[in-house]
Amino acid sequence: MVRQVERSELAACASCTCFNLRKVTRAVTQLYDNMMRPSGLRPTQFSLLVAARLVGPVSMTRLAELTVMDRTTLTRNLELLQKQGLIEVTAGEDRRTRIVTITAQGNAALARALPLWKKAQSHVVETLSEARWRAILLGLSEMVALAQQN
What we know:
The chain is mainly alpha-helical. The chain has one domain (about 30-150): Orthogonal Bundle (Arc Repressor Mutant, subunit A). The protein has helices at about 5-10, 15-35, 45-55, 60-65, 70-85, 105-130, 130-150, and strands spanning about 60, 85-90, 100. The model has no long low-confidence stretch (mean pLDDT about 90).
């Protein structure tokens, strides 16, 4: 027989790290979505374009590692960017390897979106304070490292 879960046990779930991080992520994504909407890029698309630009032509495996994204999710996100002509995905030296490269059109989209991203970023940092933002960023980096230990 399955025991009945106590309300107090369930109430403890309100402090669940995963739930609260996902809630924050959804809220922050909505904020950036709203502020970046005129650019035509979503925050996830913007982040992938930035990563592709910063590391140059990059394998999908490495891009997945850098963005802490599983390959299936990354592939889905890249397909849309590829259809829009913002990135190119080509075969690497080893036919199993796929290389992601930002296109001229992708660079132009980044240039249009960057001022809107800066506005969203400034809003967050100024609202929280620089010191508090840096502490949060450090904590988030520690959470990523902790999660990747398993």
